[in-house]
Amino acid sequence: MQALFQTIDNQDSEAFTQWLTADASFRFGNQPAVQGRDAIREYVQGFFASVQALSHQLERQWTTADGVVCHGQVTYTRHDSTQLTVPFCNVLNMTDGKVHGYLIFADTSALYGG
């Protein structure tokens, strides 16, 4: 999981989407799900552009027969250099070593409000 989260913290949408199956589903918080690697790449590129930086601290993870659940803290740095740190929980459904379903549970409602 560390390597996957490093691609996110590096804001590298290309490297991130290499972890996904071609037909993956991705949902961030209460946003609509995005389908397919290309659409997910475009979505995360837009998100990465909306923040200056982000950094994940993984605290725990659990492996199941068909996936991984992990939680920790994520710090977002806004373009004005202020920061927001919130807890997150991600649920990843895996197929043949790649992420087929990616669910992010985090309250980022204060991210753009300052």
UniProtKB/TrEMBL annotation:
It comes from the Bacteria. Residues 2-99 form the SnoaL-like domain. Gene3D superfamilies: 3.10.450.50. This is Nuclear transport factor 2 family protein.
